[in-house]
Amino acid sequence: FSPVPRFLADEAATLDLGAAWSSRLNAPLVIYLEGDLGAGKTTLTRGILRGLGHQGAVKSPTYAIVESYPLERFALHHFDLYRFSFPEEWEDAGLDELFAANSVCLIEWPQQGGEFTPPADITATLTHGGGGRKCLLTAHTERGRESLPL
Ligand code: ADP
Ligand code: MG
To answer: Which pLDDT value is given to residue 2?
Structure first.
């Protein structure tokens, strides 16, 4: 599948992409969020959650590892594995059960989970550039392709 590159001029554009994308998301789905610290992974997630009607705060789950949001159509689990030191923590933390039929999982630093991290339907890659960010969405499965923003 060919990736869709987008230029995001500012934070509002990142939030708008997330909101526009949100209506296309259906469980089960696994999305990897790739990019350096400050690339906008959590901001994009915040946009998705706003688009899905979540009114409250969206905290970066760097210390909690995962923040879960029970929404109308599915549960959204936002992982940040940056502080994962041993992939075995995956089992100890009981993360497997969050990858359920009614879950949409967004994962920052997915490689930190090693072989425990389930494969992605879509990878969103955020990079700094042109005074803003570039976002590349790559689908790896048919399900992922059907879930890309239009
Ligand atoms: P990450 O989760 O990738 O570490 P965050 O989303 O927490 O990054 O932080 C991204 C930072 O960059 C925030 O300060 C946000 O305001 C800013 N930002 C987000 N999107 C853009 C953009 N398109 N252009 C410029 N700055 C942005
Ligand atoms: Mg983050």
So the answer is: 60
ipTM more than 0.90?
Answer: yes
Alpha carbon nearest to ligand 1 atom 18, residue: 11
- Supply 78's token pair: 């936002």
pTM of this structure: 0.96
Query: DSSP H helical segments within the chain, as ranges?
Result: 11-22, 41-51, 89-92, 142-146
Atom of ligand 1 nearest to the CA of 33: 3
Whether ligand 1 lies within 6 angstroms of the CB of 37 is answered as yes
What is the pairing mode between strands 122-129 and 29-34?
A: parallel
Residue 126 backbone phi and psi in degrees, to 5: -110, 130
